[in-house]
Design a protein that fits this description.
TIM Barrel, binds D-xylose, two-stranded antiparallel sheet, 16 helices, binds nickel (II) ion
């Protein structure tokens, strides 16, 4: 592949922090990794194997960085702004050059950001086929893999009332056409997963909404999608991405617990896992650790959309995840759960509007990758140290007593519990030691021998 889209950027390498040097007056740090060392071993696996980074096509290649108050600012010399197939192909080439130079092994896309929508479904499918064929070549040439694909069922005006949950059956049918094709293309590209994000699968006001009916429609749609995936031999993981609202007032798959409840209610629980996004957790009023813990407890963690919000703003700001406490918490949850498996860390993140130069794409992703490398190393230190896990085990020790074991085994009735309560002397309370534990985490996060 010719390196012509980012001529000023050499492939990023891992560099010891001491050697960081300015290369340009507006760059106060060299474009390199200062923590992410792909081949370095942590807990017996390489960082690359642990972190399974992916870049997303929609923000990286298609987000001009406009906001509700201002026009696009992103400089994209490879993009002529047209909806032509040749422009779409060139964009894909720029993207794979970016992935290669940034050491990102995986990618994710929506049908509509990869290929332009046509006048008819047949034309849209033809466009997507052309781009998928090109992407296969680019994957072959670069060794990159598809983490997941998805269909955009929220941008087109026909989805203004939702897709699967629309009051108009026509929108459901169109959504089905898009998902069928996007699933097939994902399968052809060797995708490890397929995501359904219900961007408009919710309501704006209950005054015009039959909630019970819409939830049933959504369940029907998901069953059809899972059946189709099975019928074409797709063996990747099917994922639902919870989000509470925005653009809707309320989205039915609002958070991990609500989504798991929905999946159980409609007999979908064995067919789907969750793709959990940090900013969506924030919008739901939860921490990312909470959303992960809920999914992990249900054996339903599929993948992660790695970004972060701005808690002072009530919007999906999709910032790059640079908060080391956040990445430490995420990596601790993942290591404790035995790894990401078929999932990955997909940077569903966009640069701030003022970070508009092409090189900012590299700075932004490298910042996120370094933050996750810091988090991975810190999480491994927390696990090796063992004090947190020991504390938690000790906190529940009474449940390992004979009476605790009987309750857990379901062999005691409420009346028998009441008898035991009357018989036993009250046990002394133990401190939760939250501040001590937080201090241990700080200590290990910022230890000098990091
Ligand atoms: C939007 C979602 C979206 C999904 C893919 O908030 O995060 O980008 O990840 O449709
Ligand atoms: Ni997302
Ligand atoms: Ni999002």
């Amino acid at each position: 592949m010719t390196s012509e889209f980012f001529p000023d950027v050499s492939p990023l390498k891992f560099e010891a922090r001491q050697s960081a040097a300015r290369t340009h007056p507006r760059q106060s740090q060299r474009l390199a990794f200062h923590h992410y060392d792909a081949t370095a071993s942590v807990e017996g696996r390489t960082m690359e194997e642990h972190l399974r980074f992916a870049a997303c096509y929609w923000h990286t290649m298609r987000n001009g960085l406009a906001d509700p108050f201002g026009a696009a600012t992103a400089v994209t010399p490879w993009d002529d702004g047209s909806a032509s197939i040749s422009n779409a192909m060139r964009r894909a080439e720029a993207f794979f050059e970016f992935l290669t130079k940034c050491q990102i092994g995986r990618w994710c896309f929506h049908d509509r950001d990869l290929a332009p929508e046509g006048e008819t479904i047949a034309q849209s499918e033809k466009n997507l086929d052309a781009l998928a064929a090109h992407a296969i070549e680019l994957q072959r040439a670069t060794g990159k893999r598809l983490l997941w694909g998805t269909a955009n069922l929220f941008s087109h005006p026909r989805y203004m009332h939702g897709a699967a949950t629309s009051p108009a059956v026509d929108a459901f049918l169109h959504g089905a056409a898009q998902v069928r094709k996007a699933l097939e293309v994902t399968h052809m590209l060797g995708g490890e997963g397929y995501v359904l994000w219900g961007g408009r699968e919710g309501y704006d006001t209950l005054l015009n909404t039959d909630l019970a009916r819409e939830r049933e429609q959504l369940a029907r749609f998901l069953h059809m999608a899972a059946d189709h995936a099975q019928s074409i031999g797709f063996r990747g993981v099917l994922l639902i991405e919870p989000k509470p609202h925005e653009p809707t007032t309320h989205q039915y798959d609002s958070d991990s617990e609500a989504t798991l409840n929905f999946l159980r209610e409609f007999n979908l629980i064995t067919r789907f896992k969750l793709n959990i996004e940090t900013n969506h957790a924030t919008l739901a009023g939860h921490s990312m650790e909470h959303e992960l813990a809920v999914a992990i407890a249900a054996g339903a963690l599929g993948s992660i959309d790695a970004n972060m919000g701005t808690p002072t703003l009530g919007w999906d700001t999709d910032r790059f995840p640079t908060d080391a406490y956040l990445t430490t918490n995420i990596m601790l949850a993942i290591l404790n759960a035995g790894g990401l498996k078929k999932g990955g860390l997909n940077f569903d993140a966009k640069r701030r509007r003022a970070s508009f130069e092409p090189i900012d794409l590299f700075h932004a992703h490298a910042a996120g990758m370094d933050a996750f490398a810091i988090g991975l190393k810190a999480a491994a230190r927390i696990r090796a140290d063992g004090r947190l896990a020991e504390f938690v085990a000790a906190r529940y020790a009474s449940w390992d007593s004979p009476i605790g074991k009987q309750i857990r085994a379901g062999t005691l009735s409420l009346a028998q519990c009441a008898q035991e309560a009357a018989r036993l002397a009250p046990a002394p309370q133990a401190s939760g030691r939250q501040e001590m534990l937080e201090s241990i985490v700080n200590d290990l996060l910022f230890s000098d021998d990091a």
